[in-house]
Amino acid sequence: MSVDAVPPPLGPPVRRRSPASIVWIVVLGVLLIAALTGGTLLLLEVVRLQAQTQELERMGDEQRRLLDEQEAQLDEQRTFGAAMEDFMAKARSLDNVPIGGLVALDEIESLAVEAWRQRHSPTAVAQLRDEVTERADALQTVLDAAAAQLASNASGTLGESIVDGLASGHVRVVYDDPAPICGGDPIGCVSSDDPTLIHLDPSDYDAEYFDDELRTLVTYHEFAHVLQFTNPGPTESAAGAFGGDWEFMADCYALTATGSWSLDRRVWRDASSYWDVSVGYGRVCDETQREVIRGWLGEVGFHYRPVSQEAA
Asked: What is the pTM (predicted TM-score) of this model?
């Protein structure tokens, strides 16, 4: 008998991917990995940029703080400089005034040196500026008083006119009895307690036996005492030529300033009568001593000069 062969049953069909499909899957996978990696890198970059921004902001705050500090320093340095300029302008107006002690320029220079040393401290510079301003205000008061003195010759006398011309208004003249101040019976007097005030005795100064030449000699003599008291350093050096005698030195100043060689005068009362009058202390200085007086006059008083911020 013959048996017919029966083919086995067929299973579900097997699907095979084409090479092209496999390539696309690989490509998509690579793209996915790249996308994930790129996102991570992008996130890291954002974080880095944020950190950098914060650092820049921090640096910016520090820069602003430094700039603010520098601006504050410059502001105070400018105001200090303005105060110094104001003081020096006032001081310049006193150049060659023979009265000592009007301008403490060495002290002002010390303040300028200290301001430079403290230039990085606005608070310290501000305090120094205030001190300079205070001194400038005090100097202005001195200048105002001198201007008022020059504007009016209160006594209307020769003596006051001479003193105003010599002292630019920084010395006053009063007509009173000088004996209680200086003792004895002087025609004029200057006290160390008030060395810019000249006392003249009107009973002698305005007497008929006094002429303008005698009044001039007496006024110059008393003004010499003003210079002696207010300029102790130069005076001490010059007084040696007069044996340390301030009165002899004052007489020599009066004679040198007026070009005179005598302390004696004959004052005519009328055509037939006269007075022989002597002032001073009886000694007439020689030319060598007069040269000392001229040198002394070149040293007394205030002589303007610029100040430096560099420490000596």
From this structure: 0.76
